[in-house]
Amino acid sequence: MLDDNMLNFDGERFVRIQGGAVALAETARPLMRGFLDAGVQRIFFMGTGGVQLLTLPAIEFAQRHTTFPVSACFPAQVVIAPPAGLDETALAILPSLSGTTKESVALLEFLKARGVKTLSLTGHADTPLGQDADRTFTNFAEDDTSSESFYLQTLILMLALLEETGQGLGYDAVTAELALLPELLVSAKAAFEPEAARLAAEIKDEGYHIFTGAGSVWPEAHYYGMCILEEMQWIRTRPVHAADFFHGTLELVEPGVSVFLFKGEDAYRPLGDRVEAFARRYTDKLRILDTTDTALPGVSPEVRAMISPVVLATLLERLSAHLEVLRDHPLTTRRYYKRVEY
Fold first, then answer.
1. DSSP H helical ranges for the chain
2. Which of 79, 149, 252, 271 has the most CB atoms at less than 10 Å from its CB?
3. Domains and CATH numbers, the chain
């Protein structure tokens, strides 16, 4: 059923999909324990394109809390020159919404030949990635719901890794709070809807934006610029990490230049504060999305810090919904996507 208060939004569908993502918490610990008992000594996340960006907050989270090796690799590079340790002691986690992404399917064959253990995260089970990986978690989603789904799945897997290696942060308590999110995010969308409509009307004719953020929200800044505005709206963007903003990009800031700053609630928030202080002085088009403005009753500060990119993704979906209508450019329209051979 469509929510009459939100443009092109089905609340029941959204809750069902995100509820499916957090349901991974029920099996993530035994899943991770099985891989560890099978000799896994390191984990590589290997997603193609934007979905790889959605794994980066979980990787950064793991790297801050454990010395267990967790890193990211580009599938197209791996099959040409694999990293050290990509062998039978490695686990490769392969996220793919379609389950048919060409580079990821080729990667899976490459990994199996090397004896690497594989876990796929897909939106569709009856697909090469859904069927041929050693283990698979499938949670149906589509473009407008996949960001939150993959952010949550990868975070839960890293929480399980910490728990199973004796460095847990209170798995049961944290995942209980994550289970509140599907309904809470619908409320967050509804609260943001008027601002999304206003912001879409304001930027619909602008052709260039700088996107920046730090910590767990930097991947969402990169993702929204590249995968939504560039791919789905053909709008030029410049994603740049807030830590790098003052090493080049600041020279592009002047009146009339649009700067989108994403601010989360983790330890790296001061890097965003620094960009804000600068940009306010030099452009009249500073747009700030700050997760502290979003009410999430029952979610602790510690968990809020983990899910800042989830919150931003859910708000930005509302902006995208209005942009595609105002610009008469459906998010599914592509120039080259179906014709590119790689």
1. 11-22, 28-37, 50-53, 56-65, 75-78, 102-114, 128-132, 143-164, 171-178, 181-203, 218-223, 231-233, 269-282, 301-306, 308-326
2. 149
3. 11-178 (3.40.50.10490), 183-326 (3.40.50.10490)
